[in-house]
Amino acid sequence: MFRELRQRTEQLQDKLPADPNPTPIARPGDYRFSFQYDGVTREYLVHVPTSYRPGKPTPMLMALHGGGGDDVFQADDSKYKLISKSEQAGFIAVFPNGYSRFRNGMLATWNAGRCCGGAQKTNSDDVGFLREVIHRVERQASIDPRKVFVAGMSNGAMMSWRLACEAPEVRAIAPVEGTDNTTTCRPSHPVAVIEFHSLDDNHVPFNGGKGDLSVAQVDFTSVPASQSKWVAIDRADPAAKRVLTVPGAHCELHAAKPGGALVELCVTDTGGHSWAGGGTQQGRLQPSTAISANDLMWNFFSSL
User: Is the distance from CB of 274 to CB of 198 less than 8 angstroms?
Assistant: First the structure.
């Protein structure tokens, strides 16, 4: 669906200028939009589930691809199953494309602080771009502004942490295989977090440092350090409670104190650098099937 959209629009690219005015979305389906931001044409994809009804406030999940990927890859249901989850749960799924030096948007990255790639090196204003995507979709469709959530894979997960720090529109985040590598963080309100990470991730190591297979060669923050940081930021209970134990995975929750927000961590024993419960992702270990990141994150978001 989205791959075909891209192929058709690439053929017409010279005749298809960036749309400066968000076109209203009146019915379910798959949509591709682009606009000029900071002198660059940027793109995002939108999947609207069959349950959508204009005028009825609907949750939004913005899903950010990994470094070197693109919006089409993240929207591929055979890899991440987010389209299926959108249909099952009834949220609008939004897939923005990161910074790319290529016209077709390939090999894109996000400026998540200390990582990654061209986005970080050129200091791309990805926070501003993604906030504008949120505002545009809110003008295009009936979005519940209290239910704007962000998930991300790897570099996209790192970008979700930065949005939690800098984008007041975001209610909660679900980083998958990407720790908090922001340089500053002063959120305007507590942002709930459910983080997913495998113990054998060889790109972004659970205990921090440079991953053996990492292209970025960044000394990544550890999962425990990211959790501790956000327990403090969100004024959550420092004592974690085990809320899920299954063969090959477990989740621990820091309850919210008055005026604070929940912080949860779900750990898989295996799966490497992949989306738990997702499909096979090129060049990576088989994702863990012990848990479904999609199911657990949406249960978490729905509880807020």
Answer: yes
Residues 6+ apart with CB under 8 A from 228: none
A 10 A CB-CB count for 283 gives 8
Please work out, in degrees rounded to the nearest 5, the angle formed at the alpha carbon of residue 121 by the alpha carbons of 203 and 271: 15
Domain ranges within the chain, ordered by starting residue = 2-302
From the list 19, 1, 80, the residue with the least C-alpha distance to 292 is: 80
pLDDT tens, position by position, 218-255: 999 999 999 999 999 999 999 999 999 999 999 999 99
Contacts of residue 52, Cβ cutoff 8 Å, sequence gap at least 6: 27, 28, 58, 90, 92, 141, 142
Q: How far is residue 10's CA from residue 276's CA, in Å, rounded to a whole number?
A: 32
Classify 59 as helix, strand or coil: strand
pLDDT digits (tens, 9 = 90+) for 182-224: 999 999 999 999 999 999 999 999 999 998 888 878 999 999 9
Q: Dihedrals φ, ψ of 128, to 5°?
A: -65, -40
Q: Look-up: residue for tokens 């090959």?
A: 248
- Residue 226's contacts (CB-CB under 8 Å, 6 or more residues apart) are 161, 179, 180, 195
For helices 155-166 and 126-140, the axis angle rounded to 10 degrees is 80
CA distance 49 to 53: 9
DSSP classification of residue 106: -
CATH of domain 2-302: 3.40.50.1820
Tokens of 34: 């682009």
Contact 125, 38 (CB under 8 A): yes
Q: What is the DSSP letter of 109?
A: B
* Selected residue with higher pLDDT from 14 and 186: 186
